[in-house]
Amino acid sequence: MAEDSSPKVLSIQSHVVHGYVGNRSAVFPLQLLGFEVDFINSVQLCTHTQYKKVTGQILKEQDLSDLFQGLKENGLDKYDYLLTGYVGSPSFLKEIVAVYKHLKSVNPNIVFVCDPVMGDNGEFYVPEELVPLYREQVVPHAHILTPNQFELESLTNMTINNVEDCWEAIEKLHLKGCKTVVVSSSDLGGNGHLLALASTKMGESCQRVTITLEKKQAIFVGTGDIFAALMLAWMHKSNNNLKESLEKTIASLQATLERTLRSAEGKPHTPENLELKLIQSKRDIEEPKVTLFANCTRKSS
Description:
The chain is an alpha/beta fold. The chain contains nine helices and twelve strands.
């Protein structure tokens, strides 16, 4: 890649002083893989919310508008990708949509990668008023969505009990305008396994990809943020090869989780001991070793 041709990403998501979540999880992998990343922090907290004491600040929509206005006036508003993650309020999400519309007016080929961070395991950790906004104002603009199973259910108002339900929910998002949907994790793998599912709409047909992976016996924070960043990177580098991108994303993420678990061996699974070993996984991010291969099928509409 030529030195002056590095793709540019604007990443809008959370930030923590200590640990790895939000932009702290996403920016480093993207930079390692050759992307120029500008980032705006939707919140700035001392740590992620699994710690006993959390302090910090929340960016308001006017703050986002002010920062972006400065970029515009300096002629720094041309990006190849917009990446979004945690957003804490409906007004802030609306401002992100306004930012995207301007970015698209500057670069019609910009790709919007959205991790619709809303909750997990049946519980919301953002105001539920965000759901219809994601559904009606974000999904139609997003090129790549990376929800987990709970977020997919919320976006489609469906209960997902099996793989066919999942594909049906994904198809609903395709019909709303999103070309690629990647379900970062679901409980559909059976026997202590997770299932990742991805689909890209191509005219009247879909390419569908699945990978089954072992469920780790720990709760990690920040994995979805890394997942979305790596999917962005590998879709770019592979010329939108969905199978290759999912395989490499999961390879890097699994290696990072395994290294994190090894470092916590014999220790209590506290938030501090389970902070992702992201820096130590540099080589696994740059050169993922694929050991879990995806199944790939095509489905006609």
